[in-house]
Amino acid sequence: MSDATTDTPSNTSGGQTIRPEEAAHFGRLARDWWDPKGSSAMLHKLNPVRLEFLRDAIDVHWAGDIRNARPLAGKSALDVGCGAGLLCEPLARMGAQVTGVDAAPENVAAASVHAEGVGLDIRYMAGEIGSLDIGTFDLVTAMEVVEHVADKAAFVRELAARLADDGLMVLSTPNRTPQSRLLMIGAAEGLGMIPKGTHHWDDFIMPGELGDLLSEAGLSMGEPRGIGFSPMKGLHLGDDMSLNYIVTARKA
């Protein structure tokens, strides 16, 4: 499960963070990204869970009114690895001025067409995040992306460089556990619930490892929440981080 990739060399890290083969893989999925029963069906199931966490984090960070339908009004948001815009569009509806960055031009094209079709003004750009002169943002998100990058430390530094001093970052990623190997790769990819070849278990990141990467980039990590799965609840937030987790970060 990933929302995107990039393959243009970064100006600030001095190297490539996303593998070209990953960009090509996700670019091939662009045409039916918005089909809830298509190849990105799992992302459609995951997105509401991520949004639940994200909305709570936004309200806490900016001490907002939980009844406010547009808690990001007057704020800017950057979604790195945006795919065809599954997260960008809800962020725009929350009032943010949204920029989505993805490696695959096919994804950016699909995202732009969909946003225009639903009347949302979202800026989409293809390329390596470090090579784009786009400034800083109040909110930076990268959902199911860091596990796909070649240089994780460089990628996290690029994210940190895009975060405003009083901004909020939210990341989600699979945990490297026997359970994630069994369920996400063995079962989900094996049964076609996720396109085969989407994940490489060795690239999954444990929460402590992500915390170290964030700390090295000058960020402090919040308390992670697990994204688990059960036949009764489906994908849901909880304490079990053995499959996937989501977490906030702020400048230290």
TrEMBL record:
Biased amino acid composition, Polar residues: 1-16
GO molecular function: 2-polyprenyl-6-hydroxyphenol methylase activity; 3-demethylubiquinol 3-O-methyltransferase activity; lyase activity; polyprenyldihydroxybenzoate methyltransferase activity
Keyword DNA-binding: no
Binding residues annotated for S-adenosyl-L-methionine, in chain numbering: 50, 81, 102, 143
Coiled coil spans: none
Pfam family for this entry, one: Methyltransf_23
Catalytic activity of the protein: a 3-(all-trans-polyprenyl)benzene-1,2-diol + S-adenosyl-L-methionine = a 2-methoxy-6-(all-trans-polyprenyl)phenol + S-adenosyl-L-homocysteine + H(+); a 3-demethylubiquinol + S-adenosyl-L-methionine = a ubiquinol + S-adenosyl-L-homocysteine + H(+)
Pathway the protein contributes to: Cofactor biosynthesis; ubiquinone biosynthesis
Annotated NCBIfam families: UbiG
Primary role: O-methyltransferase that catalyzes the 2 O-methylation steps in the ubiquinone biosynthetic pathway.
Family under the similarity heading: Belongs to the methyltransferase superfamily. UbiG/COQ3 family.
HAMAP family linked to this entry: UbiG
Full protein name: Ubiquinone biosynthesis O-methyltransferase
Organism: Qipengyuania nanhaisediminis
